[in-house]
């Protein structure tokens, strides 16, 4: 599960546009009259690259094969107008930097250069100059790196051969990261209610979201939810309740009135998300003496969990950055469930983590449980809550740090979810083995500057997250054993 090269790069759990890859291949036009068989061979290689890009689930905007700076400028304009999420420049043989620099300068997208020679090795005894030149894509790569550096264009590349799965794993990683970057740049993120009192680590400067990621934060009132819940019909609430009974195992502690109310709130949440075109939601409202806002806040868990499973992550306690981390994890195919530290098991060497409230149901180890609670610890209200364990196997803890200077940074750590005793208190709880003393891991994780919430997702995703951090020009901190 550590290599995600075969995964499509379309949104894994919410329908949306695939990542748009702008592809331009090229070589030095002076070679074509000298070696007539060379250009047709290179064009075939370019067609194969385009085919494999589409196999990754990408929409490919092919700017064609360029042979000089003028054709490079024309390709640059075509790709700029197409609004690509990433530009891939295929170095099929030697070409000058003047052919690709305009592409990199004009595209409002990161650029990946690939050098994929036809096979693993040349037939040195049989090859002539023309055949050798088909293997010469490595030659211009340092030239491109130097030119990009001097033009202020971030540089990244992958070298290998045409059917090199190691190279395609890396290419797929960059393409997936570009898709997540695009989702963040286009994203609309709801923030409803107010900060949980005293949680200084959770507070996020809203302008920093657009500054670091792009996108928009829509500030919502709980009344935006209230008016929609008031309009929910009995039939709509009954249908949502039936959906919940199909998705969840219901513990005998579940009160039917509480479940019916949670279903009604869930329908209102669906409308809220649709009306404001939200890609994520963070929320909290304290409430008072059982009034409507308290009841709405207490009834959120069912609907928020169903939204999260659909790829619209919903995080409690006003945790905007964690909702964004959950969105990133989901778009990488990892799910991503709202998580914090719960306890350390020094006997078994495990870190126990999870949260009360919403969970990513799509990554549950088994059918998730709804449990009725007479009190939500540390919060007002009562009702139904989700109990589940993330699928056992490779996982990644991933969160977003807000630095003192306003920059965001990624924190990630790979481990394994394992079997062991779990609390039965209506919380999401997983046991994670990070391959070291749980106390040492907790100290190292806390030292990154992470807040006390993050996303827990399936699979080992650090390589993907490093690629995304690279495209965002963001710091990445990995905690390892």
Automatic annotation (TrEMBL):
Transmembrane segments: none annotated. One of its GO terms (biological process) is L-arabinose catabolic process to D-xylulose 5-phosphate. Its EC number is 5.3.1.4. Keywords: Arabinose catabolism, Carbohydrate metabolism, Isomerase, Manganese, Metal-binding. The keyword Ribonucleoprotein does not apply. It comes from the Bacteria. GO terms for cellular component: cytosol. GO terms for molecular function: L-arabinose isomerase activity; metal ion binding. The keyword Isomerase applies. This is L-arabinose isomerase.
